[in-house]
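Final report, Chapter 2: Outcomes

The project's central promise was a pipeline that accepts a single protein chain and returns its three-dimensional structure in a standardized token representation, suitable for archiving and comparison. That pipeline is now operational. To close this chapter, we reproduce one record exactly as it appears in the project archive, with the input sequence first and the structure output second.
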Amino acid sequence: MGAPRATDAAMRRALAAWQGAGLAVGRMEVTPEGRIIITAPEMDKPAEPAQAKGPKQWSKIS
């Protein structure tokens, strides 16, 4: 018995759910196992890491 196959209806439902959540479709993959993978489009530049909001200088303890 082979692996389950992703049907056209399953792919349409996955796309409808993704778009229904307000997300843009960048790419859609269907694996040999029948898994449907949808990813968002890549942005122009990657997100910058958050900066630590600690004190600029430690206060001296007398």
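Archive annotation: The CA atoms of residues 4 and 31 lie 10 Å apart.
This record, like all others produced under the grant, will remain available to the consortium after the project formally closes.
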